[in-house]
Write a structure and sequence with these properties.
The complex is a heterodimer of chains A (111) and B (114).
Chain A: E1 3-6, E2 11-14, E3 19-21, E4 23-26, E5 32-38, E6 44-50, E7 56-59, E8 62-65, E9 75-77, E10 86-93, E11 99-101, E12 105-110
Parallel strand pairs in A: 2-12
Antiparallel strand pairs in A: 1-4, 3-9, 5-6, 5-10, 7-8, 8-9, 10-11, 10-12
Chain B: E1 5-7, E2 10-13, E3 19-24, E4 31-38, E5 42-50, E6 65-69, E7 75-79, E8 88-95, E9 104-105, E10 109-113
Parallel strand pairs in B: 2-10
Antiparallel strand pairs in B: 1-3, 3-7, 4-5, 4-8, 6-7, 8-9, 8-10
Classes of the chains: A mainly beta (111), B mainly beta (114).
């Protein structure tokens, strides 16, 4: 079956530091890949997505590239802010559109 | 416009009781999903409705769980004879039809089984 593995947190960073959250997946077919974010006290929301190999999703300074050869979709941001403190979930979907999520990575950015 | 709404926001119930959780999707979204978020299991898919097609129930953990969607809009998730391991946040999401469409999540219902 499908699965998503992402690095465990918490990840603690200083403001303006570089953030990387690793995500790898196993899928039977050719999935679409997503990063969802859950800010404190808020619901899950889509951060970015990519639907085919070598696509780069980007939003709010975050980027992730769909790497089929390494089955990865790592999330990066060059300069984090305190407001980026949240839990980040990598996910995939196939034809049925249901999302398979990774375990989530809590990120804490300190001023 | 209005987002996905869920009720109640919190529910405390005794072991063995039945509970019903409600989801109002975004108007015009034909796809509706239920997930649950728990400490031990993370975020898990439960069930998926798409238009008038038969629902994908492959994520329901036992036959105590069921869901229906009336009139292609509101959905109710029912858990019968609740157990302590059912304690979790139950999330509903909706989306437009099509591949890889963004799913919009509701705030969730926190269920505690005592």
């Amino acid at each position: 079956g499908n699965s998503v593995t992402q690095m465990e947190g918490p990840v603690t960073l200083s403001e303006e530091a570089f953030l990387t959250i690793n995500c790898t997946y196993t899928a039977t077919g050719y999935p679409s890949l997503f990063w969802y974010v859950q800010y404190p006290g808020e619901g899950l929301q889509l951060l970015l997505k990519a639907t085919k190999a070598d696509d780069k999703g980007s939003n709010k300074g975050f980027e992730a590239t769909y790497r089929k050869e390494t089955t990865s979709f790592h999330l990066e941001k060059g300069s984090v802010q305190v407001s980026d403190s949240a839990v980040y979930f990598c996910a995939l979907s196939e034809a049925g559109n249901k999302l398979t999520f990774g375990g989530g990575t809590r990120v804490l950015v300190k001023p | 416009g209005a987002g996905v709404s869920q009720s109640p926001s919190n529910k405390v119930t005794e072991k063995g009781k039945d509970v019903e959780l409600r989801c109002d999707p975004i108007s015009g979204h034909t796809a509706l999903y239920w997930y649950r978020q728990s400490l031990g299991q993370g975020l898990e898919f439960l069930i998926y409705f798409q238009g008038n097609s038969a629902p994908d129930k492959s994520g329901l953990p036992s036959d105590r769980f069921s869901a229906e969607r009336t009139g292609g809009s509101v959905s109710t998730l029912t858990i019968q004879r609740t157990q302590q391991e059912d304690s979790a946040v139950y999330l509903c999401a909706s989306s437009q039809p099509g591949l890889a469409k963004e799913q919009y999540f509701g705030p969730g219902t926190r269920l505690t089984v005592t």
